[in-house]
Design goal:
By secondary structure, the chain is of the alpha/beta class. The chain contains 8 helices and 15 strands. The strands form 4 sheets. The chain has a 5-stranded parallel sheet with strand order 2-1-3-4-5, sandwiched between helices. A 5-stranded antiparallel sheet has the order 10-9-8-12-11. A hairpin with a 3-residue loop joins β13 and β14.
Length: 252
């Protein structure tokens, strides 16, 4: 069994050290090294590795940002950290493996054995891996809520959208449409999960399919007996459900 691996770490000596350690395992093939999150996202899509060794603490895009941008495309991930106790607990809970820096020889051996077992017994484990990555990412985001930015990857480009620039978010099956003054972006995410991470004093879910930024609300219009619309300063209109209207009135 050959295990294709990419190493993601902003510190060159850390990449070199891990590469040296992994060289003793003949079935492990390192197919890419990345020094930042953007390179990691690109490498995963281009190389489709079996495993990603991912440093958590990196400038601009950290390890959790990388997992967020990869979504379903995230491979089996081994996270590396120097001191994050919360992360260690989260990794244990989600059965994702982790390595504590500096990486100990015997700990790396256990990690490789765990990877081999996982790949040998669960050939098609992509759904399970995705679920665990999502759980880990959601726990991390909830700890750091409310969000002040949302990351979006479109056709190889990464957009960092400050939440202040978001006028509304709409559900679209397993995706959301994020409305900004400049353009609309599509992101793989669930509206319910995003709602939990946004500032409740700034964003209000007015319908099962939409959340609006209260800073953009220009008015509420009534159409017919039971139909109400939220009119935004951008000119956009969104239907308000009965439950959503109660929430909206409560926060205004």
């Amino acid at each position: 069994m050959t295990i294709s691996v990419i190493i993601v770490d902003d510190e060159r000596h850390a990449r070199e050290a891990l590469k040296h350690r992994l060289a003793q395992y003949p079935n492990v093939t390192i197919i890419a090294e990345c020094e930042n999150g953007l390179e990691a996202v690109k490498a995963v899509h281009e190389c489709k590795p079996d495993v990603m060794f991912l440093d958590i603490h990196m400038p601009k895009l950290d390890g959790f940002d990388v997992l967020d941008l990869l979504g379903d495309a995230a491979p089996l991930t081994v996270l590396a950290t120097a001191y994050d106790e919360y992360a260690l607990q989260a990794f244990e809970n989600n059965a994702l493996d982790y390595l504590l820096k500096p990486i100990a020889e015997d700990r790396l051996r256990k990690t490789v054995e765990r990877i081999e077992t996982r790949m040998a017994t669960l050939i098609d484990d992509s759904e399970n891996i995705t679920s665990k990555s999502e759980n880990l990412l959601q726990q991390h985001n909830q700890k750091n809520a409310p969000l002040n930015r949302i990351l979006i990857r479109e056709k190889g480009d990464v957009f960092v959208i400050p939440t202040d620039n978001i006028s509304a978010i709409e559900a679209a099956d397993d995706y959301v449409v994020i409305h900004t003054n400049e353009k609309n972006h599509i992101k793989q995410a669930r509206l319910t999960n995003l709602e939990k991470l946004l500032d409740a004093s700034q964003f209000c879910r007015i319908h099962r399919s939409s959340i609006i930024n209260l800073d953009y609300l220009a008015g509420i219009e009534t159409e017919g007996k039971d139909t109400k619309l939220a009119v935004l300063k951008t000119g956009e209109q969104f239907a308000i459900s009965r439950t959503g209207y109660a929430k909206l009135i409560a926060v205004l």
